[in-house]
Amino acid sequence: MCSSVRRPLRKLAWQVLRWSLFPVVLIAIGHRVWLEREKLAAFDFSLDYRWILFSGACYLVGMSACAIFWHAAMRDCKASPSALSVATAYFAGHLGKYVPGKGLVVVIRAAVVKGPEVTVGLAAITCFIETLLMMATGSLTSLVILPFLQVPRRPYLVLIAAGLTAIFGLFVSPPVMSRLKKIAMKPFPNVGQDFDFRLRWITLGFGVVMMSVAWLLAGLSLVGLLASMGSFGQVVLQIGIAKAYALLVCVVALATVGGFVSMIPGGLGTREWILVETLGPMIGGSQAIVAAILLRLVWLVAEIAASGVLWIVYSQWKRKAQLPN
Fold it and tell me: How many domains does the chain have?
């Protein structure tokens, strides 16, 4: 069979495999909701909105750490985008993850940040690295924390975390990443690949630090969310405050990486299922379901708010920069 025929067949098979996961996840979540239907009907939805705001703020600050690494990666490759354009592009790109495929995130970010200071190709490949490094660091964070926690199916989770850490870590290493430009550039078939790409190991190490901060703050965001529901105290009473926080960092990392690996847009359903299955034994199935849905909503609203504010500020800044002196 010629390559021109095999390529569309491989693409079709991949799409079928990816989308076949979606109904499986929906059935699993639906089954859990059905089991908890009576408790959910009686659930007290009174929330402390101060903790909700705290949760959203922690998430945004954590994502800002990821944007800082993206900026550093572009500067490492001799580009010099403004911090404002990078922040605007980064948060606007988050909204693209809810569209099928992961390419739109890269397209949005590259389109916003491109200019005389940075090419589309360089923006795309450094965005690609940022995403993979975030997943690698999330897997590593889970791998480090899991041995200290008593969670269901821990040996399997440790094995999965170790495998994902190795795979993502290999992909983001500079020698390998320099050979993967074609993958990062797939959304831009008409853009050349002759840009200078030389990410240093020290920059990658800086990225690991920034991503670790992001995951710690993502866990703190979940702390705030559970506190708004009055559920965080239940976890603290069972395992202590230090292990409770470590557990929530690990849970958020596992759920987010799992959602990414599933290739379902935005990890919809997959992330919630993992959160429910891991939080359920601690706070109860009904509260875990509510927490998983609320976390999605809080993060989405935070992304929309940050994107909107940054876009307004960035547009005004660009308009003033284009005015003649």
Answer: 1
